[in-house]
Amino acid sequence: ELAESATELADVARALQLAQARFPDRLAVLPSAHASALDSAYRDPERCFRVLALLAMFGGHDGTFADVLTKALGHAAEWKPKDSPQTIAKFGGQRTWTSVEGQRKLYSRHVTLGGSVSPQRCLQVYYDVLSDGRVEVAWVGEHRPTVGKDT
Q1: How many secondary structure helices (H) and strands (E) does the chain include?
Q2: Contact, 54 vs 72, CB < 8 A?
Q3: Under the phi-then-psi rule, with left for phi > 0, alpha for psi from -120 to 50, and beta for the rest, what region is 102?
Q4: How confident is the prediction for the chain on average, in pLDDT?
Q5: Domain residue spans of the chain
Q6: Cα–Cα distance between 9 and 16 in angstroms, integer?
Q7: Distance between CA atoms of residues 74 and 70, nearest Å
Q8: What distance in Å separates the CA atoms of residue 32 and residue 38, rounded to the nearest whole number?
Q9: Which has the closest alpha carbon to 81: 133, 32, 127, 132?
Q10: At residue 3, does pLDDT exceed 70?
Q11: Which pLDDT tens digit goes with each residue over 20-48?
Q12: What is the pTM of this model?
């Protein structure tokens, strides 16, 4: 059922809107996520929607989410609980957004779709888990800069 409606998605911004509409009690989508999604050139909005739906359903539990993500998308998606200390030291500002509480916050958990940093072939979703269990989505867009290939 989720995949059927996802097949008509025109772009990443629409995928994010649909996920937010489908899971209003599980996803808290920040303005930064909407802005990054609008700018995204990622070519597979259906896959983006699947990641957001999985986050809504399983994102509150890191181990479970990582397992489900691998089962659902295989090597097409990679989950990481954090960026490397070197990447955070150099590029932490590009992973810091205004939270639902209105405070600036560094987001570490992320999913990377695609093995390239090309905006058309790669997408990152940065998020956090709120104390009430909702997933706070801060970024749905192009790959954030890193100091190395795998950080």
Answers
A1: 6, 7
A2: yes
A3: left
A4: 93
A5: 2-141
A6: 10
A7: 4
A8: 10
A9: 127
A10: no
A11: 999 999 999 999 999 999 999 999 999 99
A12: 0.92
